[in-house]
Amino acid sequence: MHKPLAEKVRPLSIEEVVGQDHLIGPNAPLRKAMQEGYAFSFLLWGPPGSGKTTISRIYASSLNYKFYELSAVSAGKSDIQKIIKEGEGLKKILFLDEIHRFNKAQQDFLLPFVENGDVILVGATTENPSFEIIPALRSRCRLFTLLALDEQKLERIVRERSGINMDDESLKWLVERANGDARQVLGMVEYTYKLYGQITIESLKVSEQEGQFFYDKHGDEHHQTVSAFIKSMRAGNSDAVLYYLGRMIMGGEDPLFIARRMVVFASEDIGLAQPTALVVANEVFKACEVIGLPECRINLAQGAVYLSNCRKDRRVYEGIEKAISDVKKHGNLPIPLKLRNPSTKLMSEAGYGKGCELYDSEGLLPDKLSGQSYFKKIK
Predict the structure, then answer these.
(1) Torsion of Cα atoms, 335 then 340 then 345 then 349, to 10°
(2) Which of 69, 220, 241, 299 could form a disulfide with 128 if both were Cys (CB 3.0 to 4.6 A apart)?
(3) Model confidence over 47-86: pLDDT tens digits?
């Protein structure tokens, strides 16, 4: 059975691990826990190839606990039950990779075993736990965030652990495209060397064919990239707008999702400063519907740059948010009588519609909100 290079050279001790010094460096929390033999449940949140599995295995080994490893992609309740029942009384660590793949019911099932200490849970996820892990389970686990490995650390890993020679230029070319993923780097090194017997930029390019681009359309990378795109449009930085738009397009994001965000932005952030922005955003959305990728990338880019260069005015957005807040706070306050429609004689006798002049703007809010302002007019 073939064992991938990344698995063959996986560190077996904390001293061999490259990176994540904020967690496993001198006096860092996970290193201290290992030194003190302190067992507790925690979540490791970080990008692929950043060391989640490696750190979990070393942690379990340092405590001399029985280590169980499952992937939430294929595991279920029966697998958890089997581990709990097996060797009752044993100190156990359950490493659950891709824990975000467990649905709410599965996470609820796991909860009492973690709470009672029947098993120490170490969950690994590439997704933001705030979105993917139920609050009850999150509250019983410490959260540690792992960082993507920078290019210098990836170069060190390849030099020290791959056992394969390559020139500096080829190594630099490789790590620049790795998105901080040590497993991806080692996999590409192994694959290219097996095929061509040497590592050069040319052999790497042939092996790669299409650049591997990390972007999870349903996870944290999705949320963070969209956030960066919107904030860059808000700031009027067209270069940043095009860069984050390019990341979403290359990551396979649905162009209609991007266009929808632009339609919202046109009203939320530009508003009355340039009302044609909404027209442009809607037309971009229609173009994406009709044309599709790859051509509609041009429509998206043109629309995004246009929106980023528009003057911004959030008064309408802020006004409706403030009005909704008052509705929630006060409920359905009585509408002033003069605004009510006297559709029957009884209503007319009760004063409905009385005193309502065509262009009279006074006294239109409920009495409790008299003087309240939701829209700041520019004088």
Answers:
(1) 50
(2) 220
(3) 888 999 999 999 999 998 999 999 988 888 899 989 988 8
Exposure letters 75-109 (e unless 16+ CB within 10 A, then b): beeebbeebbeeeeeeebbbbbbbbbbbeeebbee
| Cα-Cα-Cα-Cα dihedral sign, residues 335, 337, 339, 340 | positive
318-343 per-position pLDDT tens digit: 999 999 998 888 888 888 887 788 88
Distance between CA atoms of residues 7 and 61, nearest Å: 17
Backbone angles phi, psi at 43, to 5 degrees: -115, 140
Residue 375 confidence (pLDDT):
85
CB–CB of 254/217 below 8 Å?
yes
pTM: 0.63
- Residue of 12, 5, 118, 2 whose CA lies nearest to 68: 118
The dihedral built from the CA positions of residue 238, 244, 249 and 254, taken in this order, carries a sign that is negative
User: What amino acid is encoded at 228 in this protein?
Assistant: A
Contact 232, 308 (CB under 8 A): yes
Alpha helices in the chain (DSSP H): 5-8, 21-24, 29-36, 52-63, 77-85, 104-115, 129-132, 135-139, 151-161, 168-176, 182-196, 201-208, 220-235, 238-250, 255-265, 276-291, 296-309, 315-330, 345-349
Architecture of domain 19-145: 3-Layer(aba) Sandwich (3.40)
Please state which architecture CATH assigns to domain 220-309. Up-down Bundle (1.20)
CATH number of 151-208: 1.10.8.60
| CA angle in degrees (0–180, nearest 5) for 149-231-151 | 15
Regions in the chain scoring below 70 on pLDDT: 1, 209-221, 379
Reading across the β-sheet that carries 120-125, which strands appear in turn? 66-71, 92-97, 120-125, 42-45, 142-145
Pairing of strands 120-125, 42-45: parallel
Domain assignments of the chain as residue spans, ordered by start: 19-145, 151-208, 220-309, 325-369
